[in-house]
Amino acid sequence: MGRTVGTYRQVLEEIIAEFDKFSRALRRRDREAFQAMMGRARTHSSAAGYNIRATPTESLIVSILLEHEKDIEELKARK
C-alpha cells in the first residue's frame, strides 16, 4: 500500500522548487545566499517532520530562523 501524504522532506523540496523562478531572477550573490538559506531549512527537516500542527512553510521559516539565531549567538560570543 502506498503513501497518500508526502513526507515533510518531499513537501519541502516541492516548496523550494516553487521558488525556482524567483531564485533564477536573483543576482548571483543573492541567489547563492538564497540557496544557502534553503539548505539551512533542509538541516532541520527531521525535526520539522514531527511538527504536524504547523504548515510546511511555517516549519521552513522556523528552521531558517533557528539557523539565523545560532549565527547571531555565535557573533555575540565573538565580541
Q: What would you note in describing this structure?
A:
This protein is mainly α and 79 residues long. The protein has one domain (8-78). The chain is built from five helices and no strands. It has helices at residues 8-18, 20-25, 28-43, 45-50, 56-78. The N and C termini lie far apart (56 Å).
Features:
mainly alpha, 5 helices, 79 residues
Please work out how many helical segments DSSP would assign: 5
**Approximately what portion of the residues adopt beta-strand conformation?**
under 5%
SSE order, one letter for each helix or strand: HHHHH
First-to-last CA distance? 56 Å
The class by helix and strand makeup works out as: mainly alpha
Q: What share of the residues lie within helices?
A: over 70%
* Total beta strand runs: 0
Rg, please? 15 Å
What is the 3D shape? flat
Sketch the major β-sheet.
Answer: none
Low-confidence stretches: none
Structure described in brief:
With 79 residues, the protein is mainly alpha-helical. Helices cover 78% and strands 0% of the residues. The protein is flat and about 50 Å long.
SSE inventory with pairings:
Blueprint: H1 8-18, H2 20-25, H3 28-43, H4 45-50, H5 56-78
Helix pairs in contact: 3-5
